[in-house]
Amino acid sequence: MTTIADTDAAPSHRWLRVLLVLIAALEFLEALAGVQNIFIDRHHETALLRFAQGLTSIHLALAPLLAGAALIFAALGNIRYAIFALAALTLTAWVLEALPSIAIHGMSFSLDYASFEGVVLYIVASLVTVAALFLALKDKRLSLAALLVSLPALFKWVGLVLFIIAVLIYGF
Predict the structure, then answer these.
(1) Residue 152 phi, psi (nearest 5)
(2) How far apart are CA 172 and CA 162, in angstroms?
(3) What span, in angstroms and rounded, lies between the C-alpha atoms of 163 and 172?
(4) For a designed S-S bond to 21, which of 12, 37, 74, 154 qualifies (C-beta 3.0 to 4.6 A apart)?
(5) What does each of the 172 residues of the chain score in pLDDT, given as a tens digit?
(6) Do residues 132 and 83 lie in contact, with contact meaning Cβ atoms separated by under 8 Å?
C-alpha cells in the first residue's frame, strides 16, 4: 500500500549519483596510477624543490583515499559527502601541488593553452570547488554543487580526450 508521504518524497537524484560515481571513479583510477610515484626521489638540488616534492608525495598518498571515499559515498547515494570528498581531493591538490608550483615557477598569463590550463586548474578550480563546498555545507542545491565540484575533473579529462583526438588525427 502506497501512502501520500511515499509519493511526495524527495527526488532520488539518480543522474547526479551517476555523474558523481563516474567522476569519482576516474579520479580514483588517476590517483591509483600516481601511487607508484610516492617514493621516487628526483634528487633536486634546492631545498625548495625537495620540499615541493615532499608535498607532492603527500598528495599522491592522500588522493586514493579521498577519491575512494568519494566513490563509496557516491555509490551509496550519499551525495553530500561525495561532494565533500571530491572537494577535499581538489583542494588538497591545490594546496599541495598548485601553490608550491606557483611559488617556484610563477604563473604566465598569455593566450596559449598551457597558460589557460594553468589559470583554470590553479585559480578557477579552487574557487569553484569552494563554492561547491559551501553549497553542500548548507545542504542546498546539491545538483549545482555536484556539477561545480565535477568541473575541474571534467576539464582535465576533456583536455586529455582532445589531446588524444589531435594525436590520432595529426600524429606526433
Answers:
(1) -60, -40
(2) 14
(3) 11
(4) 74
(5) 555 554 444 556 788 899 999 999 999 999 999 999 888 888 888 888 888 888 999 999 999 999 999 999 999 999 999 999 999 999 999 999 888 888 887 877 777 777 788 888 888 999 999 999 999 999 889 999 999 999 999 998 888 898 899 999 998 7
(6) yes
What span, in angstroms and rounded, lies between the C-alpha atoms of 110 and 70?
35
Task: Report pTM.
Answer: 0.84
Where are the chain's structural domains? Answer: 11-170
d(CA 69, CA 146): 15
d(CA 151, CA 157): 10
Q: How many residues comprise the chain?
A: 172
Please state the separation of Cα 92 from the chain's center in Å. 9
